[in-house]
Design a protein that fits this description.
Length: 140
C-alpha cells in the first residue's frame, strides 16, 4: 500500500479547446482518485513562468509558456493512494509516440508540444505546484 498523496494536474489549453475535459476527469475518477480542488482560468505569464521555471533553459520554454497562457486551462488537485505516480501512469509519456496504449496522451495527443495535460512528477514538485495554483489551500 502506498501513501495517500495529492498531486497537481492541469488540462492544458489544447485539452480544453478539444472538449476533452469531461473525458479526462472521468479517467482520474476511474482510477479511484478524488478531486480536492478545481480552478478554470487562463494562466498569467507570471504563473506559467513559475510553473515551468525548471524548464527555463530548454529551447521549448518560451513556446511552452506562450501556449499555456493562450487560453483557459483546468487546474486540479487530485488525492488518493500513490496519486502522483498513478496520475503520471494514466497520463502517459511526454511524447505520445512513447506513451503506453490506453493512456491519455497515447489516445488523444499527436504532438509533443500539445500533449493535453500536466501532472506533477514527484512529491516536491506536487507540493510546489499545489501551492502555486491553489494559494488559498484545498478542501480536506
Ligand atoms: P511532462 O509534461 O511529461 O512532465 P516535461 O519534460 O516536464 O514533460 O516537459 C514539460 C512540457 O514541455 C511537456 O509536457 C511538453 O508540453 C513540453 N515539452 C517537453 N519536451 C519537449 C520537446 O522536446 N519539444 C517541445 N516541447 C516539449
Ligand atoms: Mg514535467
Amino acid at each position: 500500500m502506498g501513501d495517500a498523496q495529492t498531486t497537481f494536474i492541469m488540462i492544458k489549453p489544447d485539452g480544453v479547446q478539444r472538449g476533452l475535459v469531461d473525458e479526462i476527469i472521468g479517467r482520474f475518477e476511474g482510477i479511484g482518485l478524488r478531486m480536492l480542488g478545481r480552478h478554470d482560468l487562463t494562466p498569467s505569464l507570471e504563473l506559467a513562468e513559475a510553473h515551468y521555471a525548471i524548464h527555463r533553459e530548454r529551447p521549448f520554454y518560451s513556446d511552452l509558456v506562450e501556449f499555456v497562457t493562450s487560453g483557459p486551462v483546468v487546474a486540479m488537485a487530485w488525492n488518493g493512494e500513490d496519486a502522483i505516480a498513478a496520475s503520471r501512469k494514466l497520463i502517459g509519456a511526454t511524447d505520445w509516440r512513447e506513451a503506453e496504449p490506453g493512456t491519455i496522451r497515447a489516445d488523444f495527443a499527436r504532438s509533443i508540444e500539445r500533449n493535453l495535460i500536466h501532472g506533477s512528477d514527484g512529491e516536491d514538485t506536487a507540493a510546489f505546484e499545489l501551492g502555486l495554483w491553489f494559494p488559498d489551500g484545498l478542501e480536506d
